[in-house]
Amino acid sequence: MINFNSNVASLAQNYHANAAKLNPQEQTDGFKKTVDAVKHQISKIDDQQKDADQSVIDLLTGKNEDITSVVAAVSKADMSFKLLIGVRNKLIDAYKQTMQMNI
Predict the structure, then answer these.
(1) Which of 6, 60, 64, 95 has the fewest CB atoms nearer than 10 Å to its CB?
(2) Bigger pLDDT: 55 vs 15
(3) Average pLDDT of the chain to the nearest whole number
(4) Is 55 left (phi over 0), alpha (psi -120 to 50) or beta?
């Protein structure tokens, strides 16, 4: 189960206060770290998809007869992919809202 922090508003205020104190180089480094973390997570999801595909192939070729492990691997890969798509959709919505803001 996913637990959400109900105190998100204060966390956002703290983030903005701390971000204002950073110099541009530190902000760029933070962005690079975020991009690297996203790349790492996408790589993990890709590995889960490949593992699930291989387990299905092993089941069909007779190398593996344990169908529960195959179903578990496919379900895990499916849930990870759905979570990735949900995060992507939230980022796109946030981008669209940012672009519609009046300056």
Answers:
(1) 6
(2) 55
(3) 83
(4) alpha
What's the rounded Cα separation, in Å, for the pair 32 and 28? 6
Both tokens assigned to 31: 């962005």
Report the interhelical angle of 67-99 vs 24-61 (nearest 10°). 150
CA proximity to 54, closest of 38, 74, 36: 74
Question: Mean pLDDT throughout 66-88?
Answer: 94
Cα gap 9→11, rounded to integer Å: 5
Is 55:70 a contact under the CB 8 Å cutoff?
A: yes
Q: In sequence order, which residues have a C-beta less than 8 Å from that of residue 29 and are 6 or more positions away?
A: none
